[in-house]
Amino acid sequence: MSVRIRLRKISTTSKGRYNFRIVVTDKRDARDGKHIEEIGHYDPSKEPVGLKIKKERYDYWVSKGAQPTNTVASLYKKLKV
Which CATH code, of 3.90.950.10, 3.30.1320.10, 3.40.1160.10, 3.90.79.10, is assigned to 3-80? Predict the structure, then answer.
């Protein structure tokens, strides 16, 4: 089973902007389908951007072989800075 850490679209705000959850999921599942674990959230419509990732769970899943998408990896890098 190939595991990915990626964004899951959950809702819209005013003007069609979306909120996202950062989830661990099987690579073959749909973007908004079932997931293994929710490890954070991302709200790009807030100022400053609302971003929260459980670092210990992120590191755990990466150590077990989960691959973050490019977007999630860049968000995590911004969070660490």
Answer: 3.30.1320.10
The predicted structure's pLDDT at residue 1: 55
Q: Write down the pLDDT at residue 64.
A: 93
pLDDT at 37 over 80: yes
Q: What is the dihedral of CA 30, 64, 7, 77, to 10 degrees?
A: -160
Share of the chain above pLDDT 70, in %: 95
Domain boundaries, the chain: 3-80
Count of other CB atoms within 10 angstroms of residue 63: 8
CA pair distance 7, 23, nearest whole angstrom: 6
